[in-house]
């Protein structure tokens, strides 16, 4: 940006008026007819301000072309005062144009801008000879200084304005450049982010379907486990995947899987899908236990539905293995359990199976350490029994209880019974655990029967205990000690306990049965024992396993199996107990089939002896107990 030329600086009107006033005073004091401020231009000189007098022949705006005979030109060229007392007598000024206006005397001073460029002059003229008294010259000099001071201010102001404009221009330019750089940078960041996202996406997803790949899914499972979140892991195997891929191509199968996935969102919005390999996917959902069977049923129906690909109509043949996450279970064990469940589901020809397997606890603590803790717990009486009521399906009164072992370790937390019993069976501590459960249950029941004489308490007996030749004697001693009639005690054994040593088990159980203790076959239907067992052993009660009840509302197969088990039990004159009743539909179904007693969370979870006693003693005489424990 160029510096402003002084010639282009505009003198404000107000200053021009001030100068005029000043010139009036000057003319009057110097007693001359003319006082002027002249402004020089490139080719001419202009009357810029003039005193107001009738004798003044000059008007503001009058111009004269620049030539040698002008006083003002001379003053500016020599940068000094010029006094011409009488031009008529001075041959140098014979051609001066002012003579034509009768002005013969002149006294003038130059006016300069602070940058030394000329502005013009301040001068007084007279029509008669005049040597211009020193006071008048002094006055003229004072006005010259005053005007130059004003020119200085104007100049500074103009320069300031100019610099301000220049700065603003620079700022605008800089801002423009910064904006350009910023937008280039943002563009580059966007491109890089998009590329990074693509890489991240490929790292974590299956390309064909967009599902998480195994690597990302495992990480997700770990996160859920570490934050103690409960979830359900579904392993879905598509048995006809290979055929579809062979006939219609891999991309068609991938497309079917994404369609399958999009249909899932209609039944559950909290799912994460991962692809393990070409024919298996894993689904993580947050569903509670009650809703899971219905959800699995929906899932298999979605698979069976028709997917159209061009003209062809394709169905997915899916098998679903579901497993609930449990505290302290490792990712690997969960995956293994889901995988085994889906294999089992396929081999049984079911569409879905919900695992009831026990999951091992994380092996962060060695088995040896847990054993030590367990030994301490047995010795220090840190174990206790909880009791779960058995209910009459018709009156809903509590007719019995099942004693269930509980161990709440300060470091390990609540330990699942499956883990506890397996461990104790392996290291022989089961004798101590078993005796503990028997003694406590018998002692406790002996107090309750004083109030409820028909109450029967069931105690679970391990296969290892049955091998103990002193077991019968031991039970007899405890019954005598606490004065509990044998009819108030039931022993629950599982099929696995019978297989171990058939002859000894028959002998032991028969002696107990003859004593009046009732014998129940627990978890019926889960093992491999044939119905022959029911004839061989002196069972009084058959306890249908909860895994058949879980899906009985939806699954026709399970309904048929439960009916068949109840019929056989009735034919063999065995009582039937059903465990795992969690809702009224399940209750209605088994009640209609005519079972003897029912047990499950619908009535109460296993509770402490005190709470059980409260519930037992506070039952109304007929109908449901007036309160429930959940
Ligand atoms: P079990 O004898 O079949 O006991 C029933 C199990 O089902 C108990 O689990 C109980 O809490 C659970 N249960 C009861 N109602 C419901 C329900 O409505 N829904 C569901 N999902 N579960 C229900 P728990 O206490 O964890 O015991 C597991 C197993 O550990 C028992 O199965 C039994 O085999 C064994 N056990 C428990 N206490 C002892 C004991 O003192 N000695 C021996 N040898 N085994 C024991
Ligand atoms: Mg049991
Ligand atoms: Mg059971």
UniProtKB/TrEMBL annotation:
Q: Which organism is it from?
A: Aliivibrio finisterrensis
Q: Which domain of life is it from?
A: Bacteria
Q: Please provide, alphabetically and separated by semicolons, the GO molecular function terms listed in this UniProt record.
A: cyclic-guanylate-specific phosphodiesterase activity
Where does the secretion signal sit in this chain? none
Protein name stated in the entry: GGDEF domain-containing protein
> What stretches pass through the bilayer?
none
What is an example of a Pfam family matching this protein? Answer: GAF
| InterPro entries in alphabetical order | Cyclic-di-GMP_PDE-like, EAL_dom, EAL_sf, GAF, GAF-like_dom_sf, GGDEF_dom, Nucleotide_cyclase, Rev_trsase/Diguanyl_cyclase
- The EAL domain covers 367-620
